[in-house]
Design brief:
With 240 residues, the protein is an all-alpha fold. It has one domain. It contains 9 helices and no strands.
Length: 240
């Protein structure tokens, strides 16, 4: 079962609040993290299969992808049982793997600012759910697993949009995209391990319920700022 949602009372866990504040600030400044510098030049120069480099790039992209990680943090926030973590993370991974590969291989073009705005909204949604905001909907409440899968699809499109910004060679494209996706999953597992360790220590503290309320509020605020920023960027980028 999911553990109890936070109540308004309780002492805040200072370290967790500080981490959440930093995370929310990064969320608002990540601005759709992309591949830049030497990595960008290298990606465009590749002609043929390059399994190792693309695995590295995928892992690096995920562990620096604050929007993806903040959403994942919200997903596992109240999951205690390993089987639940496996189910939710697997649904997220399947979702973003499908659209990452389809987006690049089928050249699905969707405005990157809009996709990043939806990714920001996914953080807002998950934090709001963690705060018990959807509980009043009763049987009309969206299925949490289905929501994670659907948002995973959008997160995958976000990853694809970063690669679509480059001119990628068709030679070895399939194996390179599969390698990049493997790297993304490796990066996700590394980040997830740190999150679960932090949460395990944090939950043992008596002030967890109160600080969980504050952290999810900050998480929702960070997602909201990121969403608004991306929508403004989309509006400025629109030719209309």
């Amino acid at each position: 079962m999911l553990c109890s949602r936070p109540k308004a009372s309780g002492k805040s866990y200072t370290l967790a609040l500080l981490l959440a504040l930093i995370g929310s600030g990064l969320a608002s400044g990540a601005l759709g993290h992309t591949i830049t510098g030497n990595d960008a030049n290298y990606v465009q120069a590749i002609d043929g299969p390059a399994i190792g480099p693309f695995i590295y790039l995928g892992a690096k992209h995920m562990v620096t992808g604050y929007d993806h990680l903040l959403y994942l943090f919200g997903v596992v926030f109240f999951l205690r049982r390993p089987v639940q973590v496996l189910q939710f993370v697997s649904l997220f991974a399947i979702g973003h793997s499908l659209t990452l590969l389809a987006g690049v291989l089928l050249n699905l073009r969707i405005n990157a600012f809009l996709i990043d705005a939806i990714i920001g909204f996914s953080i807002v949604y998950k934090a709001f759910e963690n705060l018990g905001g959807l509980a009043r909907l009763g049987r009309w409440r969206p299925n949490p697993k289905a929501a994670v899968f659907v948002f995973g699809l959008f997160h995958g499109l976000g990853l694809a949009s970063k690669l679509q910004a480059f001119t990628l060679s068709d030679n070895g494209l399939l194996i390179n995209m599969l390698s990049f996706n493997v790297g993304v999953e490796i990066g996700q597992l590394l980040a997830l391990s740190g999150m679960l360790l932090l949460l395990a220590v944090w939950r043992a503290r008596p002030g967890f319920p109160g600080s969980a309320l504050a952290v999810n509020t900050l998480l929702m605020s960070g997602g909201f700022v990121l969403t608004v920023y991306q929508l403004m960027a989309w509006a400025n980028d629109s030719p209309y």
